[in-house]
Amino acid sequence: xxxxxxxxxxxxxxxxxxxxxxxxxxxxxxxxxxxxxxxxxxxxxxxxxxxxxxxxxxxxxxxxxxxxxxxxxxxxxxxxxxxxxxxxxxxxxxxxxxxxxxxxxxxxxxxxxxxxxxxxxxxxxxxxxxxxxxxxxxxxxxxxxxxxxxxxxxxxxxxxxxxxxxxxxxxxxxxxxxxxxxxxxxxxxxxxxxxxxxxxxxxxxxxxxxxxxxxxxxxxxxxxxxxxxxxxxxxxxxxxxxxxxxxxxxxxxxxxxxxxxxxxxxxxxxxxxxxxxxxxxxxxxxxxxxxxxxxxxxxxxxxxxxxxxxxxxxxxxxxxxxxxxxxxxxxxxxxxxxxxxxxxxxxxxxxxxxxxxxxxxxxxxxxxxxxxxxxxxxxxxxxxxxxxxxxxxxxxxxxxxxxxxxxxxxxxxxxxxxxxxxxxxxxxxxxxxxxxxxxxxxxxxxxxxxxxxxxxxxxxxxxxxxxxxxxxxxxxxxxxxxxxxxxxxxxxxxxxxxxxx
Length: 501
Fold this sequence. Notes:
Layout: E1 2-5, E2 10-16, E3 23-28, E4 31-35, E5 41-46, E6 51-56, E7 63-66, E8 72-79, E9 85-92, E10 99-106, E11 113-117, E12 121-127, E13 131-137, E14 146-153, E15 160-166, E16 176-180, E17 187-204, E18 209-210, E19 214-215, E20 223-228, E21 234-239, E22 246-251, E23 258-261, E24 266-272, E25 278-284, E26 295-302, E27 309-315, E28 335-337, E29 346-351, E30 357-364, E31 369-370, E32 374-377, E33 383-386, E34 392-396, E35 404-409, E36 416-419, E37 426-431, E38 437-442, E39 449-454, E40 459-464, E41 469-474, E42 480-495
Antiparallel strand pairs: 1-2, 2-3, 4-5, 5-6, 6-7, 8-9, 9-10, 10-11, 12-13, 13-14, 14-15, 16-17, 17-18, 17-19, 17-42, 20-21, 21-22, 22-23, 24-25, 25-26, 26-27, 28-29, 29-30, 30-31, 30-32, 33-34, 34-35, 35-36, 37-38, 38-39, 39-40, 41-42
């Protein structure tokens, strides 16, 4: 097995004795392990940028067979049935949506062969008889469905033979983690459906404890938190419950939500302006086939009602996922946050031209004026939050070996880092209402772990979730904490005999 293992989620490759249950580690910092058909070799992904390596079954003689390429991700390495070739999925990030490229290569190296290039490609399996079976996500409006396709391969070169054929035309299914019996006749897959929901919990002891969080939004679509109303009685959120991502407001004590902004654009992260007169949000035009827009707009709606008004153009499109993914409509850059202090400015975050730094620009949503920008080194996994008084930014960087929160003063003072003790893999951050501590969410193999972190780095676990969690957002009065959570409904299915193309 590979990936995060044990109480501390150490990432590596491990051997488990099925009789005694003992665990032996073969290698650190490795994931996506795949054992060759004869059991003598192990493929795995490691490093940054990601590369594919192979080693013997006892963990020796590790060497690279697919070098890493800056900006590319590599996933799902696997073997051909005879062990002579490997397959892997290359995710090439571009200005718009990433491309998903399925490549084949001789197990001893050599020139790769491109089998498929399709942004809808998800999972694949090389079956006996040189049949490649793979799943493709459907186009809109059926983005939540996948179907199986088949492609014949040349056993020696790994090159495609003929054209792909669709072998299922089902609705309500996704085909993930494909596997098959040794003869290739019976296919097994995971049918997994995810959705985002808004949860809230009541804080105690200055935010160092939380009562059991409860689900606030009850739709069967994706709901993600934005900000709170100034009186801390309602949460603003965005949801695709009506098909498009629109804006909503819901009181903590109620079970239904009120729509506050509907139009054809995709709308996200509604937040109150510092003066309490406006609801500010980002919108992007809806693109054909859910392609990423190159720019959007900061918008405002009067709290008292009325039409939306544009403030500024926003560069880029924020996403943590591909089209159809539950986290497609999350992301912090470009993005903005507004403070609870009426004397402070909101802050807009945008990527620079080379996508290497984040440019933070203060702005006044009432006057429509921008302030002096501050830029910070970034990574594609950065998340950030603005302090309640609008003076500082907290930034996290996803790291499998450490947990660091960088505090960036907006007055130009020197940034400093907070090393969060006893944690790794931070995926989201938010400030406490008084600005004297932080909330962050740590990724784990068992779900999200919500932490309270003081400014010296001491951390305390508030709650452990059975699901991934993001976007911790404290109410202005410090009484509640809202966050988004991914709820999954997964089952294992089998197809006794694959349909013929």
